[in-house]
Known about the structure:
Elements: E1 2-5, H1 8-21, E2 27-31, H2 38-48, E3 63-67, E4 71-76, E5 96-101, E6 114-123, E7 126-134, H3 136-145
Parallel strand pairs: 2-5, 2-6, 4-5
Antiparallel strand pairs: 1-7, 3-4, 6-7
Helix pairs in contact: 1-2
Bound molecules: adenosine-5'-diphosphate (ADP) and magnesium ion.
Amino acid sequence: xxxxxxxxxxxxxxxxxxxxxxxxxxxxxxxxxxxxxxxxxxxxxxxxxxxxxxxxxxxxxxxxxxxxxxxxxxxxxxxxxxxxxxxxxxxxxxxxxxxxxxxxxxxxxxxxxxxxxxxxxxxxxxxxxxxxxxxxxxxxxxxxxx
Length: 146
Ligand SMILES: Nc1ncnc2c1ncn2[C@@H]1O[C@H](COP(=O)(O)OP(=O)(O)O)[C@@H](O)[C@H]1O
Ligand SMILES: [Mg+2]
């Protein structure tokens, strides 16, 4: 299933809609090049969870924890490329919502139940998002997002 966003605002709205469908233990796996909107989508998810703190992508932080209606674990795995170690992030998973940017880099540390979103840069203001469900609970979410 694919969605097209024509603006940053629209991507935030998509994230917000998605965020409302998530529950404790949900894992959102984001892939796509730099500047394709992974962090912007995460901001929308945070909005749905009533996170008040500003969600950003700090240069040297791999895991950021935000408190909202549920705890949001935001991981940017960019610097973990070819990292052979399991950093134990999966242990947080059941305590809240987990969103991982550059998921492919850490995929081996997670089981096979997650919602994969592959983001693609089309032009300056347009992004495409492909939703792929891995696991029954995510089938329903993808359907709702259509
Ligand atoms: N439709 C869109 N959706 C998301 N971001 C967009 C869109 N159009 C332009 N942008 C811009 O693209 C950039 C996306 O940045 P970011 O979310 O940090 O990317 P990533 O986390 O994937 O590296 C932002 O500067 C944002 O303003
Ligand atoms: Mg980012």
